[in-house]
Amino acid sequence: MKLSVKVKALAVAGMIAVSTAQPAYAVDLSGSGASFAVPIIEACKAGFAKKTGHSYVYTSTGSGTGKNNSDNQIGDFWFSDSAHTGAKKRSTIFHAPIIAAPIAVLVNLPANKDIYLSPTTVAKIFSGDITRWNDPAIRADNNRSIPKVIYKKTSTGNVVVDKSGNPVVLRTTTTNVRYTLPNQPIKVVFRSDTSGTSNNFTGWMSGVAPTVWNKPKNDAFTTAFPGNLNAPGNIGRIVGANGSQGVATLAARTKYSITYAEKQWGTSFGLRAAYIGNASGNFALPDSGGVSAFLGEAKQAADGIVTYDYQTKVPGAYTLGIISYMLLETSYANKEKGKAVVELAEYLLSPECTLPAADTGFIVIEGTFLAKAKELIARANK
Length: 382
What we know:
Blueprint: E1 3-4, E2 28-33, H1 38-43, H2 45-52, E3 55-60, H3 63-71, E4 77-80, E5 93-108, E6 116-117, H4 119-127, H5 136-141, E7 143-151, E8 169-178, E9 187-191, H6 196-208, H7 221-224, E10 238-241, H8 243-252, E11 257-262, H9 263-268, E12 272-273, E13 275-277, E14 283-284, H10 288-295, E15 299-300, E16 306-307, E17 321-329, H11 335-349, E18 364-365, H12 367-377
Parallel strand pairs: 2-3, 2-4, 6-13, 9-10, 9-11
Antiparallel strand pairs: 1-18, 4-17, 5-11, 5-12, 5-17, 7-8, 13-14, 15-16
C-alpha cells in the first residue's frame, strides 16, 4: 500500500477552493475524541461548511472519551487513535481510517540543535531508567556518525514509490553529530487522560524495546508504565497533563522536558522533534516521507483496524506513524444527520480538505488504504 503526502496547516483553512453547492438544509454535527486529529479537523471546518452548508463542533477529549461517547451515543461522530475493542462497544460502530500522522518525541532543550534518540533510549527515558540528559546512552546517540535516507518526492512532496510500492531512495547520507548534553534531570511529561496517542506510543515502546517497556500498550500511560510511578525518583519528575495541547503547553514551560504528541503541537509551542532510530540503524524525523515509508509496511484488516510493523527494515521509516480512526454508525436514527456525517468523512479524505504542506507531517491515505476507507464509509447510515 502507499500513502500520499496531503497535509493541511491551520493558517490556510480559509484558502480552500470549494464548491458553493448547498444542501436542502444545513445540519449541525457534534463530534469528540482524539486530540491528535484536531489540527486537520479544525482546518477543514470552513471548507466543509462552504461546500455542504453543514457545520460541526469538535471537542478534543482524548480517544478514551471519544470511545465512551460513542458507547453512550453522545454526539454524532467520534475519533480515536487506537482501535475500539472494548466490551461496551456497540455492534453498530465501526472504524474508518481517515487521518495519518506521526507522533513526535518533543524536547525542550536550550541548545538549538538536532537531537537523536534510539528506540531503546526513548523507552528508558519514559520508563524512568534514564533520568539525566547527559546519560551515556543519550551521549552515545548524539556523538556518532548518523545515516539518513533521502527519498525521491514529487513536486507536491509525495514520496515516489516503485512498482512494488516501495519508496524510492535517492541517496543515503552520513552526518557526524557532536552534542554536549546538559547535566540536568529529564522532566518527563505524559498524557494523563485516556489517549490513543498514549496507546500507540506505549505500543511502539513495547514493540521496539520489549525488555525495557515490558507491559502491554494501553490508552492510559499510567497503566502501561512498566515501573512504579510513585517511586521517589519519579515523583515530580514524571508528570501528567491532559490532551495533546496540555502536554505541549507544560513541556514548553518546563526546561529540560520531553513529551510525545502530534508534531504540529510541538511546532506551535516551540518544542523540537527528535530524530528517532529504526531497525535499519538509520534515524528519521517525523515528516511525511518517513511516516509514509513506515505506514506502507502496515497491515489492514477487513474491519479497517491497522497493525504496524515496528521492526521494519525500510531504511528511512519513521516508526511512530499512526492512523486515526473515525468511529461511524451503520445506522443513524436521524438519517439527515447520518448523511451529513458521511459527507464529513468523505470531505476529510478529499483534496479540498488536504492541501500539500509537508512540514506539518499529516498525510492522507490513498491506494489500498483509501479504497478500504471508502468501502467502510459506504457502510454508514444504512
